[in-house]
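Record type: ASSEMBLY
Status: queued
Input:
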Amino acid sequence: MSDSNNTDIKMADAPEGYIGAGFFATSFEKVIGLARANSLWPLPFATSCCGIEFMATMGSHYDISRFGSERPSFSPRQADILLVMGTIAKKMGPVVKQVYEQMSEPRWVVAVGACASSGGIFDTYSVLQGIDRVVPVDVYVPGCPPRPEQILDGLMRVQDLAKNESLRRRNSPEYQALLESYNIK
Amino acid sequence: MELTNENVLGKIIEQFGEENITDAVNPDGIMTFQTNRQTIHELIKYLRDDEKLQISFLTTMCGIHYPEQKDRELCMMYQLHSLRHNYRLRIKVYFPISDPVMPTLTDLYATANWMEREAYDFYGIVFAGHPNLIRILNVEDMEYHPMLRQYPLEDQTREDKVNTFFGR
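Status: finished
Output:
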């Protein structure tokens, strides 16, 4: 017997809305959120071992494509989610910031692994002690390096954010103030 | 001629005089001796061009900082290799940190260009005659030379690390 007819398949619920004969009405925000969450295109910024772990995540076994991240965007142009994986030296900091600035809204940032989150074991004058010093971070993935499952979990946390945030959140004064605090126009 | 520590040292002392070649020891089988700033350039040129020695490969050079040694705080260490005889030697030059000027070797070895830039970057050693003495590894706007031991190795902007857990 193949697994295709087992009953463990979880169906995703439709968003809140009115169901009638032949129509379904819901808010625009929820539809857009659904679309964004299930088509997150990652921009991998991989500098070290965590990057190798992400390559495994992209491979067929862990298959990040299941989450709509079929095409890792190696350009900021259509990317939604910046995945910073690996040690970021202070010399590399401005580059990370520039890549983030070149991405268009809506954009999310995941710091994958100990180095990107906090500098990790490299408590050194030359290493940036966490990328949240140069760009705002939405999700931190712990681990050194994290397993592919953890990276997928981080991606799913970003999906939750994308599903549930309002379309206007990025115009809010709080968000503007956050970007202002990083000197990002 | 088979190169041994004794006959190589003998040749070098014969060439440059005992007052310029001092403290020869063999800490790990590789002969190490000290010389001074006036001799080092001529010495390395001699080792390269001498037909018997042919010690013509500059393996590495780097700075060392000994803050406790008065007037000998900085040191340049040169490792040379004779590919012809498979013979290695190590040369050290000590000089005060108040006057961190060394002669450049860029006219002898092209590889000295980047190595001297590295020594300048990390130790502030100035190489007189270097064609392009700018930082090579650290950020350009860094205002200090991080490998000098008056600076802590750790990033000083962290507030969440307890020193006791980090062996400090």
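Annotation: DSSP finds three helices and seven strands in chain B.
Annotation: The radius of gyration of chain B is 18 Å.
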